[in-house]
Every structure is written in C-alpha cells, then in structure tokens.
Design a protein that fits this description.
Length: about 500
C-alpha cells in the first residue's frame, strides 16, 4: 500500500503540534518536536467508529480515528443488508434494543442532511406456517415492548394484494411500516467526512498492533508510527476482542457469523415493493427479500458461524440455500439475472447483547459485539459512548462552530447528476456518463477523487459513486473508470486496479 497519511479538513490543516481544539499539546518528543497526545483515539473506521468520531467532533477535543485498511467503511460496514431497522424484534430491555430504536430516529433526522440515501419501503413479516402465524401476535407485543407500536396484522388477502408476486402458501403477515432501506456506503463516509471537517484526524493504513498504557496516556503502536491518547475507544469490529485484550480483558470472543447475499438485476425491482421478512429465530433475523437503495433486489443473508475473520467469499452451499428460500418467497425472482453476490461477517460473540463498556479508571471504552444492527444503531452508539466519556471525566465543551457537510447523493429517489440539466449546463462533465449501468458521470468520478476522503481504489470509487456496481460489474467501463481515477488521483492505473507488484 502506498503512503496515505493523515486526512484532515483543508481549512483545519495546522502546524504539527497544535491540537484540533487549539489547546496546548500535552507531550513533547525527545527531538523537541511536539507530537500530540490526543484526547481520544478511536480504533476502527467502520460505521460505528466513524459515527463516534463525528459525535466527538462537536466538542473541543483532539481526536484521531485510526483505521487498519486504506479507506473508511471497508469492513462489515460495506457488506450488510442495509436495512434501517425500527428495532421491533430486538430483545426488550437490551442495550441493543434501546440503541437501535434511538439510532433509527437519529439517522432519520440527520441522514437526509448528510446526503445519506434513505427510502421508506416498510416491511412485511410474512408467516408461512400455522406456527409462524401464531407467532405474529407475540412479535407485535414484543415490538410494543420495544416502544414500536405501529405494527399491524395483515390478512392473507390483503397480503397478496400488497405483494402479488409472493409465492403461494403465505398465511398472513405483520406490517412494520417504518422499516427503511439505507445506503451502507455513504453512511460511514458521511460520518467520517463530517468528523474531519470538524478537526478529527483520520489516519488510514494504521492497524493498531499493541498498546502500552501509562498513567498519563495510552501509546498505540501502528504501522504509521506511535499514537498517544488519553482515552481509547475500541470500535474494531471483528477485531474488537483482540483490542480489548490489550487492555487486560477476557470477556468476549468474536466468532464471525457469515452472511451471504445475492443481488438481482434492476429489472427485478418491480417484483417487490416492501422488505419481505421471515419470522426470526433466536440466532438470526433470517433470509429476507428487500429492495436496495440502488434499485436492485437483495436476497439474504445466510447465518453461519466461521472461524476465519477474513472469510468474505461466497460458497456454493450458501448461495444454493438462499436461492431455495428465495424461490419460496418470490418465485419470479429466480427468473431474473443475478448482478452480484457478496458476503459480510457479523461480529457475533458468545453474548447476545452489545459488548459496550466504559472504564473511566483506565480511560478506555470497548464497543464490541455490534453484530447485526450496527448500521442502524451507529449514531446512538456514538451518543452513548460520548456520554460515557463525559461521565468518565473527559471534559467536553461544545465547539462554537460546527461545519456541516453533505455527501454526493447516490440513491434512486432524488435527482442524480446525469439527470440534472442545470448542473450539466454548469459543468458538462456531469452530462458525460462513464458507467452506463449505474449512470455515473465523469464529473462524479472526478469529485470522488478530490473528496475530503478521496477514492483511491475501484472499490472506494464504487462505494462513493456506484461506478462498476451495476449489471456489467465494470466489464464495459472499468478501463475508462480506472484511467479517470488514476489521472485525477495521481496514482497509476495498476495501483487503482490493485495489480501493482
Ligand atoms: C450479512 C450482514 C447483514 C447485516 N445487515 C444489517 C442491516 O440490515 N442493518 C443494520 O443496521 N446492520 C446490519 N448488519 C450489521 C452491521 O453491518 C454492523 O453491525 C456494522 O457494520 C458494524 O460496524 P463496525 O464499525 O462495528 O465494524 P466494521 O465495519 O467491521 O469496522 C471495524 C473497522 O475496524 C478496523 N480495524 C480492525 N482492527 C483494527 C486495528 N487493530 N487497528 C485499526 N483498525 C482496525 C477494520 O479494518 C474495520 O474497518 C449486518 C451485518 C452483516 C454481516
């Protein structure tokens, strides 16, 4: 990986040694330089770590967000089902239930302003057996216990009126009107972008390999050099247990729960209006069929415990089991083209609830076990963590000015650049479509290369623009997209393609 360096907002770039808040730096190096002791170091720039960074950016603290990989949101946060859950089926009384409910509200409030595509589809939790039909009333009662009272029973006749392409044999459903779909890619990028716009330093390519703690600070060893911070927030997803052990704890182990998914072509989108959920079991929410924010239909995920924390490949068995389930729920779906398959790993532990602990004495916060609802709960987790930091003694004075950001819109419901005549008139690059499947323009690719957190790889570009995400998966546009990104980012085409020796 070539050097990435710290990412800071241009208007906040400053002399080495000054803190984000302008406070005096707390430690001096042996050579007389003034390396910072940050107030807070957050480990992991997934949706959870990025949300925490954004929340902290509202206060006058020096904060660094450390990410092992070369971009924000490259872990579990980029490979999920992308449902903005109401939390209707969470375990009542659990921390997860409370944070999912609050996270749903926060994303509904802030998501549109941040440019995060969110679409209200609603969901139908469909029963296919008499046992499942009987379970629906209990699920509605559980939803009410979780503070969500808008569910309603749907009789079988109405169910087939609403979703005429459902397979035969459904006995009824529970409507959950406030389930939404959301863009999993924009969300962490928006949080991280707003965080750095307000003084947080983002350091990519910086895996935390060890931590030495003294009374004064924690010293984190990373591939980019040491980082000192008074507080550490562990948001390392699949590796949160390992970071937790650096602080002397042995309280949970992450066992990745693999979830495979199949994405169907946009022509399938008319087959289904809402998210079709199964009746959940103790271990999984089950296999759903859902519209995506990009106008496709997704089928999945599977749920299989694995030992390998990098096992993000799909399997023949997993895909076969999905297709069998999909055929029962929406038979016509199986006649549509498959655009892509992908796999995400849930950071499951031996505990059913989030593993969120604040240790004021050690100035350490653990945010582990954020299994299958972290996208929804991210902003609420951040609120909870920052409250814990304040209660733990971190002085948090609100910044007088907060720079709001808005991400380029990549969903399907608002106007995109290729259809915006005024924008094209002002800059013809927005009228020049490069990725035809997803209608991504030259202007958007150049913008992504010049963004505050720039796209540096095809994967990064895909998550910022949709380029290469469509039916041809880059077959037609890859060369031109790579050439454009290379030219705009000053990298070689080989580096962009990830084929450098
Ligand atoms: C199949 C599937 C479906 C899902 N569906 C939904 C859904 O519909 N709705 C929903 O709300 N949630 C869903 N989720 C859950 C959601 O995706 C996760 O809860 C969320 O993405 C977790 O975010 P995170 O930031 O904790 O983890 P991650 O995104 O994995 O981020 C952790 C980051 O930490 C970095 N890191 C790790 N170790 C280190 C280290 N030593 N030093 C520095 N950095 C490090 C990693 O590189 C990574 O970028 C689903 C998950 C899966 C797998």
């Amino acid at each position: 990986m070539d050097a990435i360096g710290d990412v800071r907002a241009p208007h906040l770039r400053r002399r080495r040694g000054s803190t984000a808040s302008g406070l005096a730096p707390r430690r001096r190096g042996h050579d007389g330089s003034v390396p910072l002791t940050y107030d807070v170091a957050i480990v992991g720039a997934g949706v959870v770590g990025a949300a925490i960074a954004r929340e902290l950016a509202q206060y006058d603290v020096a904060c660094i967000l450390l990410e092992a990989t070369d971009d924000v949101g490259t872990g579990t946060s980029k490979a999920n089902t992308a449902i903005l859950h109401t939390g209707f089926d969470a375990k009542p009384g659990s921390l997860e239930a409370a944070l999912v409910r609050r996270g749903h509200a926060l994303l509904m409030e802030h998501g549109p302003r941040l440019g995060i595509p969110i679409e209200r589809t609603g969901a139908l939790l469909v029963a296919w057996t008499s046992e499942q039909q009987l379970a629906l009333a209990g699920i509605a009662a559980k939803a009410a216990e979780n503070g969500y009272t808008a569910t309603r029973p749907v009789a079988v006749g109405e169910l087939y009126d609403l979703e005429p392409n459902l397979g035969p044999g459904a006995t009824g459903a529970l409507a959950v009107p406030d389930e939404h779909i959301i863009c999993p890619f924009t969300t962490p990028l928006a949080f991280a972008t707003e965080a750095i716009a307000n003084g947080v330093v983002l350091r990519l390519g910086a895996p935390v390999a060890a931590v030495v703690s003294t009374l004064e600070a924690h010293h984190l060893e990373t591939a980019t050099g040491p980082v000192a911070a008074r507080w550490v927030v562990n948001a390392a997803g699949l590796h949160a247990d390992r970071i937790d052990r650096f602080f002397g704890h042995e309280r949970f182990t992450v066992t990745p729960r693999r979830g495979e998914l199949v994405v169907f072509d946009k022509l399938a989108r008319t087959l289904v209006g809402r998210t079709i959920l199964p009746v959940p079991t103790a271990t999984t929410k089950g296999v759903l069929v859902a519209p995506t924010i990009f106008g496709n239909v997704v089928l999945g995920p599977t749920a299989e415990d694995v030992t390998d924390r990098t096992a993000t490949g799909t399997t023949a068995a997993g895909l076969a089991s999905l297709l069998a389930k999909g055929e029962r729920v929406l038979p016509a779906l199986l006649r549509e083209e498959v655009t892509a398959t992908y796999t995400g790993l849930r950071a499951a532990t031996e505990h059913s609830d989030y593993q969120l602990f604040v240790h004021p004495d050690a100035r350490y916060v653990c945010v582990g076990g954020i299994r299958s609802t972290g996208l929804t709960a991210s902003m609420a987790i951040a609120e909870h963590v920052v409250a814990g930091l304040r209660d733990g003694g971190l002085g948090l004075a609100r910044r007088t000015a907060f720079h709001e950001i808005r991400m380029p819109y990549i969903g399907e419901t608002l106007t995109r650049p290729f259809e915006d005549a005024d924008r094209i008139a002002a800059n013809p690059d927005y009228g020049c479509i490069v990725c035809h499947c997803e209608r991504v323009t030259r202007g958007e690719i150049l913008d992504a290369a010049a963004a505050a957190i720039p796209a540096r790889t095809l994967d990064g570009l895909r998550r910022r623009t949709r380029a290469g995400l469509g039916r041809c998966q880059g077959f037609y546009c890859l060369a031109e997209v790579a050439r454009l990104l290379a030219g705009a980012s000053g990298r070689t085409v080989s580096a962009i393609l990830g084929v450098e020796p």
